[in-house]
Specification:
Strand order of the largest sheet: 1-7-6-5-2-3-4-8-16-15-14-9-10-13-17
Distance between the termini: 72 Å
Strand content: 15-25%
Number of helices: 19
Structural class: alpha+beta
Helix content: 40-55%
């Protein structure tokens, strides 16, 4: 087919003659020379060092920074990538991430892996701005473009069109994405959803995930997935196993808009087309959704773990070994006084769907099982402080706010049980300026019995119509999450405490705990 991919040809077939794509750039109108000069000044890099790093003569670099000359159009993408790679390494080595984020992005922090991408985006946008000034033509006003070309251009287009369509939606939006999750993460696609302000909830996202990529990436891939689900807490992801390339690389929003994209040999999105014809959009959306429905689900959002006997909840606790990553309060090892209070609330109908029998069953389950079998708890320190201040917990999947007195009893009860059950391991994830520098709190818990598992959102932080739980429905996915958290226990930021050490810490910081309990 003369070097043109089949996917690309299909994309062209779906584009109607009346569909006009406008490449919209929503960045500051700065020139390429000015942005490059600012980056070099910020990182304190001399022109000669940049010249040597990217393999271009010093005279070229000098002309680029003074604005006398622009990089050649056929080479600019590679040049910008090389500059971004080189400067990102310098900025990271200088430990200048926060200053970079504040100066160039207007935010408090940035993760290391995103620095090169942000620099590349800025340089690419600035290059387009320079071309506009030079030619007197605004890219955003070219009405006849039906295809968006280039990595930066595709990202800007996807960011604009998805934000517009979701924010303008008059119904709870559903997005069907037939591309692969990790490939999209590599292209920074999921960042598009960070600043979207929806008017209607819930927002469902259906996407494929290649288990081979998960297995190949092991801990790193599981971390990327977990962080995405944590960052996009208010979205409901349904993730399917990618076993086929049928209907590949399509983004369909409800029944009204479709985007097609193509990736190059490096798995980078560099071609986008779209279709707003309602009839065709409805047809593509329906076909994609029907196809996805026929594929295995590996992660599924749910409202509850289930109230019935011998359902998922009972299956989960039918084990002799557990690990709990607790970030939404500490709902385990509760004293009887808390359960008695819950029973009174259930009698009054103030505990949602939970009735007295359900509370008593959970109480007996926890008392007869969780106080005797091997348990490992991991809690981030900021989550512990948040729990002590607010008293908010989610008893499996129902919210409850503990009184100050109940919190005091809880602490003492936990200390007593740890002393009586040597199989309980209590560990703390200390603050770090590395992986979690961009997020003050982790708001997604992970619970596993090593045969089944689920993720649980912080109910206080999500929209009421957003589903709070993810069932993990694939063994490889469950094992990958387990490996990720097992690896965290080897981190220098993780510390496990014996019963004696916890008791000493309690005595040492008793004054601070009392201060947090002040109303």
């Amino acid at each position: 087919m003369c070097g043109v991919s089949l996917v690309y040809c299909i994309h062209l077939l779906f584009v109607s003659d009346g569909c006009k794509i406008k490449v919209m750039i929503a960045m500051k109108k700065e020139s390429h020379s000015l942005v490059l000069k600012e980056l070099l000044n910020f990182s304190q890099i001399k022109y000669a060092a940049l010249s040597h790093a990217i393999g271009y003569d010093l005279s070229y670099v000098s002309k680029w920074t003074t604005g006398i000359r622009l990089p050649a159009a056929k080479n600019v993408d590679r040049i910008n990538q090389e500059i971004a790679r080189f400067l990102s390494e310098i900025i990271i080595k200088q430990d200048n991430l926060e200053a970079f984020a504040q100066h160039f992005l207007g935010r408090a922090s940035i993760e290391q892996e995103n620095v090169a991408f942000e620099i590349y985006q800025s340089l690419s946008c600035a290059y387009r701005n320079s071309l506009e000034c030079k030619k007197g033509v605004s890219i955003s006003n070219i009405a006849d473009d039906k295809i968006v070309l280039g990595k930066a251009e595709c990202f800007a287009f996807l960011q604009k069109i998805i934000k517009e369509k979701l924010e303008e939606s008059t119904v709870p939006p559903t997005i069907v994405i037939t591309g692969e999750f990790f490939n999209l993460a590599k292209n920074h696609f999921w960042r598009i959803f960070y600043d979207i302000k929806l008017n209607h909830w819930p927002c469902d996202i259906h996407v494929f995930l290649d288990l081979a990529e998960l297995e190949k990436g092991a801990i790193g891939a599981a971390e990327i997935l977990f962080q995405c689900l944590n960052d996009l807490l208010n979205y409901d992801f349904t993730i399917y196993e990618k076993k086929s390339n049928a209907y590949n690389n399509i983004i369909a929003i409800n029944n009204e808009f479709v985007i097609f994209y193509n990736v190059n040999a490096a798995d980078e999105i560099e071609i986008c087309t779209s279709n707003a014809d309602l009839k065709q959009a409805h047809s593509v959306y329906t076909k994609c959704k029907q196809f996805m429905a026929s594929q295995p689900v590996i992660l599924e959002p749910k409202q509850t773990l289930g109230m019935t006997r011998f359902g998922f909840r009972d299956q989960f606790y039918a084990s002799q070994k557990f690990f709990f990553f607790c970030v939404n309060g500490f709902e385990f090892l509760l004293p009887d006084e808390v359960f008695n209070s819950m029973i009174e609330k259930a009698k009054a109908g103030d505990l949602g769907m939970a009735d007295v029998e359900w509370v008593q069953r959970v109480q007996n389950l926890f008392k007869n099982l969780l106080e005797k079998v091997p348990l490992r708890f991991m809690l981030p320190t900021n989550s512990i402080v948040r729990y002590l201040e607010t008293g908010n917990i989610n008893l499996t999947d129902f919210p409850y706010q503990m009184t100050i007195e109940e919190r005091k009893l809880h602490i003492k009860h936990v200390l007593q049980l740890i002393q009586s059950n040597p199989n309980i391991t209590f560990g703390v994830l200390l603050p770090t300026t590395e992986k979690y520098s961009g997020t003050n709190f982790i708001n997604l818990s992970f619970n596993t019995s090593y045969s089944t598992g689920f993720l649980k959102k912080n109910i206080q932080l999500i929209h009421p119509d957003t589903l709070p739980i993810y069932f993990i429905k694939n063994t490889m996915l469950l094992n990958s999450f387990q490996a990720y958290f097992d690896n965290l226990t080897k981190s220098k930021h993780y510390k496990e405490y014996t019963a004696k050490e916890l008791e000493e810490l309690y005595k040492k910081y008793y004054f601070l705990i009392e201060f947090l309990f002040k109303e």
